[in-house]
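Retry 2 of 3 after timeout on previous attempt. Resubmitting structure tokens to design endpoint.
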């Protein structure tokens, strides 16, 4: 039977989970701010909700996915000890396998969920991990990037007693670094451990924008600009052998409407109440290279005359606003000449037609043509950015 797992940041989250007829989960995830870089509860809040959850018959699971140095490791082990002293059956969801081994050495009966989203995508390595942590392991948390054939093969290879979890609806976590990549607060260095920064980032490789970047005392976290939503696919995934489905709504302030729509199985309404655009992930892809095609910016794809009537020439290497564009010729059989017309396509897909009135080399000498693998300069064109594609008409 499938189980749906929610994060809880408030009593309301737990109560809503308990009221989910047919969707009720036996486990609630309480994120602890000293054990995870993601949005989490401070210690007092954690204890309050843990007491509330255990008293209502729920199992409490805790994410442990930091990259700790020696000092942080000591703090982590202290927090883990405090939690297990009060609630010995707490489940720890661990991403660092060395840390998982350390926990088992200290607490032989500890219950583990191993997060293998970024580490293991094949059944052989998962079988090895299952053997290493045989006495403690309850569940593997699989990557959303696994195609359905791989999911089915992994489930078939693993012991039937092991549970399989996947993200069903929530933010797509891309990157975590213990470094503070958004900068330091030099004026308030003493207050830095409690500081939080947020920014939106754009990709230089394609037209994707608004990747969410968070920074806190644990480092910097990057999320995809869209949410994953497999709400209408969970039954298919369950048939493949996925037993547990995670819903992560921590970033969404008004979660009540989400719970209500989820309870009514109004999955489209759940998406409507999500303040982010959604994607359906990659599990339906059976070709290993399908994901890479999606990641490539199709606006910058090299095309031939038979496709669009234009000849690919190269790329814009540099833009000096009000000054020049630097163009690198990447076509070994074609040159760019003064007087010719070119089409410049930006990463966002905007096409700008330009007549080359003049052309200069790197010494700013006037030239008549730009040869293969040479960089030439033309006058600045408004709206053009670096990495734009250049084609001859």
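Retry 2 succeeded. Sequence:
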């Amino acid at each position: 039977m499938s189980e749906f797992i929610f994060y809880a940041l408030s009593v309301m989250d737990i109560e809503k989970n308990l009221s989910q007829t047919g969707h009720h989960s036996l486990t609630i995830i309480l994120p602890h701010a000293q054990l995870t870089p993601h949005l989490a509860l401070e210690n007092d809040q954690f204890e309050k909700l843990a007491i509330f959850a255990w008293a209502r018959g729920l199992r409490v699971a805790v994410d442990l996915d930091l990259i700790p140095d020696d000092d942080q490791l000591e703090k982590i082990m202290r927090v883990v000890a405090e939690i297990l002293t009060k609630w010995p059956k707490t489940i720890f969801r661990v991403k660092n396998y060395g840390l998982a081994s350390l926990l088992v050495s200290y607490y032989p009966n500890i219950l583990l969920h191993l997060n293998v989203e970024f580490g293991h995508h094949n059944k052989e390595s998962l079988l090895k991990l299952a053997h290493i942590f045989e006495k403690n392991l309850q569940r593997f948390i699989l990557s959303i990037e696994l195609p359905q054939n791989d999911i089915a093969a992994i489930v078939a290879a693993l012991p039937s007693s092991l549970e399989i979890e996947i993200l069903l609806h929530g933010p797509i976590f891309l990157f975590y670094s213990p470094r503070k990549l958004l900068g330091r607060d030099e004026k308030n260095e003493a207050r830095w451990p409690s500081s939080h920064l947020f920014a939106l980032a754009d990709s230089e490789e394609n037209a994707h924008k608004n990747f969410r970047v968070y920074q806190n005392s644990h480092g910097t976290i990057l999320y995809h600009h869209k949410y994953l939503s497999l709400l209408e696919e969970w039954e298919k995934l369950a048939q493949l052998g996925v037993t547990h489905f995670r819903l992560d709504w921590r970033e969404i302030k008004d979660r009540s409407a989400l719970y209500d729509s989820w309870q009514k199985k109004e999955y489209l309404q759940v998406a409507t109440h999500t303040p982010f655009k959604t994607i359906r992930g990659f599990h339906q892809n059976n070709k290993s290279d399908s994901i890479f095609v999606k990641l490539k910016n199709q606006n910058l794809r090299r095309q031939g005359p038979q496709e669009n009537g234009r000849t690919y020439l190269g790329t814009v290497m540099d833009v000096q606003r009000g000054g020049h564009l630097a163009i690198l010729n990447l076509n070994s059989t074609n040159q760019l000449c003064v007087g010719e017309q070119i089409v410049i396509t930006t990463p966002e897909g905007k096409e700008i037609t330009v007549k080359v009135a003049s052309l200069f080399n790197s010494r700013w000498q006037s030239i008549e043509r730009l040869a293969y693998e040479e960089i030439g300069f033309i006058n600045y064109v408004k709206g053009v950015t670096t990495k734009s594609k250049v084609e001859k008409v």
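Attempt log closed. The first helix runs from residue 11 to 18.
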